[in-house]
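Support case: user asked for a sample of complex input and structure output to validate their parser. Sending the pair below.
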Amino acid sequence: VFKIPRGTRDFTPDEMQKRRYVEECMRNTFQKFGYKEIQTPTFETLELFTAKSGETIVNELYSFTDKSGRELALRPELTAPVMRFYVDKLQMEPKPLKLFYFGNCFRYDRPQKGRYREFWQMGCELIGSSNPEATSELIALAYHALKETGLKNIHLKIGNLNYLEQQIEKTVEGINLDDCWPGGAAVFKSDMFRLIDKEDYGGVQNQFTNVNVESGKTDEFMTFIDSGSTKQLERFIDKEELDPYKEIISYLKKFGVNQVEIGMTIARGLDYYKGIVFEIDAPVLGAEKQICGGGVYDMVKSFGGTDVPTAGFAIGFDRTILALETEKYQFPTSSIDAYIIPLYEELIPKAVEMLQNLRKNSVLADIDLLRRGIGKSLKYASSIDAKKAIIVGSKELESSSVTVRDMRSGEQRMIKIKDLQQVLK
Amino acid sequence: VFKIPRGTRDFTPDEMQKRRYVEECMRNTFQKFGYKEIQTPTFETLELFTAKSGETIVNELYSFTDKSGRELALRPELTAPVMRFYVDKLQMEPKPLKLFYFGNCFRYDRPQKGRYREFWQMGCELIGSSNPEATSELIALAYHALKETGLKNIHLKIGNLNYLEQQIEKTVEGINLDDCWPGGAAVFKSDMFRLIDKEDYGGVQNQFTNVNVESGKTDEFMTFIDSGSTKQLERFIDKEELDPYKEIISYLKKFGVNQVEIGMTIARGLDYYKGIVFEIDAPVLGAEKQICGGGVYDMVKSFGGTDVPTAGFAIGFDRTILALETEKYQFPTSSIDAYIIPLYEELIPKAVEMLQNLRKNSVLADIDLLRRGIGKSLKYASSIDAKKAIIVGSKELESSSVTVRDMRSGEQRMIKIKDLQQVLK
C-alpha cells in the first residue's frame, strides 16, 4: 500500500465542501473590495526566495534542479512570486493595482499539530498607494474576509515598525552598541525584534540590561510596547508621525471594522516590512492563534522594479478552517433532492430518462447504479442524506407515475411523472 | 529581475476570471451528477507513479528527496493519487463512490505551444459500479461538463480495448509471434497499440506485413478499426460481447448526449485501461485537439486494495480554455457598478462611508485611493470599465447629494445619497 507523504493531507468530500465554501466566501469579499485574482506557478527559481529571505531559508524549502541545471523551489509564500509577476509584467497597468491570490505553499519542516508541509494561503497585495484610506481599506478587507466566513471571535492588532525601531533606538541612546553587542546596532535591533515577536519580554529586558540600559529606560520601553490606545502613544511618538497611524485607525471604523487594538508588540522581520504592520488572531486556536499577518512593505525595488508603495497580507487558510471548526460553525451542507431507485433492470432506461429530466431542471438527483434491491437502495439513499427517494415500479409506470418517499418521515405517495419536478422543488 | 521558470505561466486578472468561470461551470456539472470533490497533495512518493506507469516515467517527472531520504515527485496526473487515497482511507465508504478533483499537474518535458510544465486537470473517478448505465453516466458527465462551459463543437468517441485486442489476435491467428517479433505476442500487441494511438495506419499495415499476415486479413482489420456504427461492428464482435457496448451507447442518448462516434482507433495504453475507453476532441484546436480521455480501468488491486470496478476521465483544463477562446466564446465579464471620486481630501471620510454602505448592500463599488484630480480619476474609472462614477463635492454634500455620472453616455445628475443604492442597482 502506498503512503501519503509525511506532513501532507488528503481531503475528503466533507472537508472539501467546507474548504470550497470558505474559499468562495473570501474570494467574494476580495472582489467586493475591487481586488482581482491572479495566479503564479507552484515553483519559482530558488534565488527569488533567497533574495527575499536570505540563504537560511533554503533549509525550509523543497528545492530541485531544472533540466537546464537551474535551481527551483516550491513556493513557501506568495508575496515574492506576486512581486516577481508585477515587476515582470504588470508595472505598466493603471494604479492602484489591487491583486489577490489563493494558492498552496510548502514548508520543509517537522510536521506539528496544525502545521503541514503543504498548506494554503489567501492574500492581497495593494500596489500603488500608501494613503491612509488605502492602507485602511486593505486592513479592513483582511478583517471582513475573515468575518464573512462566519468566524465569531477575531482580534485585529495594528502596529508600526518605525515606532518600535525608534523606541529601541531611544532606549539605547548614548550607548555604543558596536562595542558591546556582537554585530553592532543593526544586529541588536533585529535580535530585539525577534524577542518581541516571540513575546519573550523577559528576554527583551535582559537584552537591554546586557548593554547597561538603566532600568528606568527599560521600564519606559516596556510601557511603550504595552500601549493600549493612541492616547498612550502620544507620550512616545511625535504628533506628525502619529497622525497617519491615527488616521488609518479612524478610517477602519468607516470601513466597518468595529474592533481594533494597538499592537506595538508586532515585530515582523525588518527585512522588507516598513511602518504599518497588522495581525489578526483567532483566540479560539490557543497558542497558534495568528490567522492573518500583513503590512506595508518594500520589495519591488530590490526585485528590479520602479519603486512604488506596496502593502499586503496573507491569511492562513487551514487555520481559518480550524478556527471555524473549533468555534463549531455550522457549515452549509448540500444533500441531494432525489434518489431514483428502479425496481427492475428493465426499468433502468425509463429511470435514467427521469433522472436526466430532473437534472436538466436543476433538481439535484441521483440514481442507483448498482442494481441493488429496494432495501439496500433506501439505506444508501439515507446514508447520502437524500431528501426523497423515487421508486420506479412497473405498476406505477402504467399510470405514468412513480412512488415518492420522504426519507425523513418515511411517508410515501404516488406522483405523476410530469409533476415530479414540482413536488421535488 | 527574476524570471518565471521555463514552461510555467503567470495568469493575469482577465485570465483568472475566465479560468475560475470555467472551473465553476465544470464543478457545478460534476456536483449535479452526484460527484463529490476531493483533494490530494501536490507531491506524492515517486514509487506511486513508477508503480502505475513504469520506471521510464521518472524522466518526465519533477522529483526531489525528502528530509528522511524518501523520493518524492510532483504529480504528473491525478488518477494514481486518487486511487492511493481510496485504498488508504475510502474503501469502507458506501458504493458507488463518485469523486472529482481539480488540480495542477507537472510534466518535465520540452515546453511547446499549448504544452506547459505546470498544467491543470479536472477529472472524475467512479468506484464501485461497472453497469452500462454507470459507465454511460460517467461518459455523459464528461460530455456535459465540457458543453456546459459553452464549447460549441466537441466530438465524443467511444472505443473498446477488448475488441481491439481480440481483432489483433484474430488477424495474427496461426502465426507464432514468439518466433518473428522481438518480445513475442505481448510486445507485438503493445507496439500495435502505440501505432494505432499515433494514427500511424501505414505503420499498422507494415507491422502485420512484417509477420506475414496475408493482405486480406490486414484489410479486414483496417475495416474493423474504421467501423462507424455498431451495425458494422456486428461483423466482427460476438453479440453477447457487443451488447453491453451498445447498451452504453443507447444510455448516452437518455443522458442527453446527442452525438457519439464509434472509436475503435482509441488505443490508450493497455497497462491499466480495460474494455471501454473514450475521448473527446475539440476540432477547433487542430493537431492538439484531444481535451478529455478516460475509460474503465483497473488499478486498485495493484495498489493493494480490494478489487472493485473503476472508471474515470480527465479533462485538460488549459486546452478547454484555449478551445473556448479559439471558438471566440464570450466569457462573462464583471465591471464595477460605481467608482467614487472625492473632490477634496477632506471629503474622503464621507466618501469612504458611502463606499462602505454600498458594499454592504452588494453594490460593486470602489474609490479613488490616489487622491487624483477629477480628470485622471474619470480616466481610471473608464479604464476599469466602471458603469457609474460618483463625484463627491462639497456643494452637493450640503444638500446630502452627490453627482452620478453615467460612464457610457457621460450624462450627469445629482442624486440624494439615500437614493444612491437604488439608482446604482
